[in-house]
User: What shape does this take?
Amino acid sequence: MKHSKTLWAAGAALFLSLPLSAQQFLRPGDFYVGANIRIGYLTANGQVSRDFLPGNVNASRMLWDPSQPDSFINSQVDTSSSSNNGLLVRRVFTGPESFITQVISGPGPFDGIDDMRWDQNGRDVVVLDFSNRLWRIDTIDGSVRTVVNGAAPWNDPGGMAVDPRSGDIYVTDSRGDLFRVASGTGGVSFLRSGVPNGELLIDPNQNKLYYANSSRFGRLDLGNPNLPNEDWFGTTTTPIWVSDIRNIDFDQNGDFVFLRAGALIYRLPNTGTVPPGGAIPTFVGSITFSSNSSAVSPQGLAVVGSTTEPYRLTVESVGVLGAFIELENAPRGFGFGYLLPSRATVLPLDTGPVFGLFPDTLTLSVLGTTPSPGSLFAHVGALPPPIRLPNLAMVAFFGETWDFVGVAHGLDGRYLGRTNAVRVTWN
Assistant: This one.
């Protein structure tokens, strides 16, 4: 009994200390929206919404920076200039609703920013400006370089994306034409027509380009772009959804997030294959802006922890009372982590108070363990290799249902994020 009490105390103390040892103000899974004169956010569960920063900041485009996870890269406009007045700035959060602004580059030579994406190198931001020109801006030294050699062939482009593997840049325009700018060369080639003009995303794991215009969402195969488009919604053969899609992003689980007019947030699972007959997103929540000014126009969307390679957990009961357990894709900056189990499955999955779990003695026993290299439940330096337990390895727990979740921290104790929650019955 004495040992049990000591274990509870040690585990509880460790749990309480982890998120506080190095404060992180931008929490994985939260949604941030730029709406010109204000910035708003919505918690990952869709239950808490706030906005802040009054004044003309023109934060119309946003990118979360995984290398500095308490900051966003924002577009801004220099109101003192009438031309080439684009600014690229970094918002470094010093509290949940406070930050300092650091100018990266500008004003000029680029115009106001219409769209922007991270370059393949993770340091530069590729910018499509109001004059339909592409620029590459170094977020460290602020240098600006032209991307396209010569006149660009597109007409009124609506979206731009960068392939994080090849570095190729894709642009779609008002005619429905899709162009590719080859990485490192600045050469532009026409790829195909019939692509809805709007926001673009690339999932490099599937080699797919995703497009979203006002009311349609679908994709095409970059490996064979002449194949027919595949659509989730917005066509005659798929569900008709709402209009006014303003922006899209990936969330921390690699699923799609949509921003609609009115600062409404929706989520759609990234299933890899399009469900027969298509699918429509589900509502997460909305951001209420305190200003009723017409200048509050939600356009920019960024999800903290956004990734196409999510920190993911698989736990399966295999064979006869065997098990397969795998943690994948450690967050950038990973130092140590825990695979937390719980036999207390009294609440619906992923609704418990501790990282989605309802903790029990098993949970706290893991939290009381010192992380070591290769350890499944408390690991340091890297994620452990997948583990497959043979038949009957879990016979002592026959019929029991357990919950699991993986939790990651940096070496300084900064909370980096958690995996999906998994519920498994040993049988």
Summary: The chain has a mean pLDDT of 88. The radius of gyration is 23 Å. Helices lie at 2-17, 361-367.
